[in-house]
Design goal:
Its EC number is 3.1.3.77. By secondary structure, this protein is α/β, with parallel strands linked by helices. It has 2 domains: 134 residues, HAD superfamily/HAD-like (Rossmann fold); 76 residues, Transcription Termination Factor Rho, Rna-binding Domain, Chain A, Domain 1, CATH 1.10.720. 47% of the residues lie in helices and 11% in strands. The protein has 8 helices and 6 strands. A 6-stranded parallel beta sheet has the order 3-2-1-4-5-6, with helices on both faces. β2, α6 and β3 form a beta-alpha-beta unit. Bound molecules: ligand L4RZE5RM and magnesium ion. The site of the ligand CSCCC(=O)C(=O)COP(=O)(O)O has 14 residues, from α1 and α6.
């Protein structure tokens, strides 16, 4: 019996278009000025140190901005980039320049599953702060009260089974009682390797069907 649902964001609760055409361009547009203004913040400096560790040499602020802009263009899921994006998006949401997209069925079924007593969690490459922002400032209002917890790449990459084992140990349930929702077959494969139940969301024609997993066109078709 399913007792918890862990959901991906991009392509699952929210559209890929919103992430790639609104969120990523917003972060790219503001990355350089954000780094220039916030370089004195020890957290920002530590994130730049993490970028330097990946590229293998010291970077000026402008060079770091150039690397991070390139990573945005390449859709890299690097943790320092994801943390910085969340910090930049926070300003955008607070200024009303960003509104978190969720599909119309997303709040309806999150609410229904929550009322049924299921525990709801998020696992996204976006930072925990970014996850709380998109659901806190969503088209359907503040959805954060529905969630019991959030996981990002601090637990590991989404295509690695060990990440899902870590999530299971944090949730405190066996994999057989946890359903993972995602649009990406490799993520579902990794979750299943860790023992989780899976369902692939095929929201649009961009999605690549992974026939090894049950499929749903929206949350109304997800079988609990
Ligand atoms: C938290 S909203 C931004 C999502 C994001 O940055 C991203 O890279 C999409 O990752 P996901 O794991 O949700 O597909
Ligand atoms: Mg996704």
């Amino acid at each position: 019996m399913i007792k918890a649902i862990v959901t991906d964001i991009e392509g699952t609760t929210s559209s890929i278009e919103f992430v790639h055409k609104s969120l990523f361009p917003y972060a790219r547009q503001h990355m350089r000025s954000f780094l220039r203004e916030q370089a004195g913040d020890p957290l920002v400096q530590a994130l730049i140190d993490d970028v330097e560790a990946v590229v293998g040499w010291d970077l000026s602020i402008d060079e770091a901005a150039g690397v991070l802009e390139q990573w945005i263009d390449e859709d890299r899921k690097a943790t320092p980039l994801k943390t910085l994006q969340g910090m930049i998006w926070k300003t955008g949401y607070q200024a009303g320049e960003l509104k978190g997209h969720v599909y119309v069925d997303t709040p309806v079924y999150l609410q229904r599953w929550h009322q049924q007593g299921l525990q709801l969690y998020v696992y996204s490459s976006g930072s925990v702060e970014a996850q709380q922002l998109i659901f806190g400032h969503s088209d359907a209002g503040d959805l954060r009260p529905l969630f019991s917890g959030y996981f990002d790449t601090q637990v590991g990459g989404k295509r690695e089974a060990t990440s899902y084992r870590t999530i299971l140990s944090r949730i405190g349930l066996p994999g057989a009682q946890v359903l993972f929702l995602s649009d990406i077959g490799e993520e579902l494969d990794a979750a299943r390797s860790a023992g989780m139940q899976t369902c692939q969301l095929i929201r649009d024609t961009i999605a690549r069907p992974a026939l090894a997993h049950p499929q749903a066109r929206d949350f109304s078709e997800v079988s609990i």
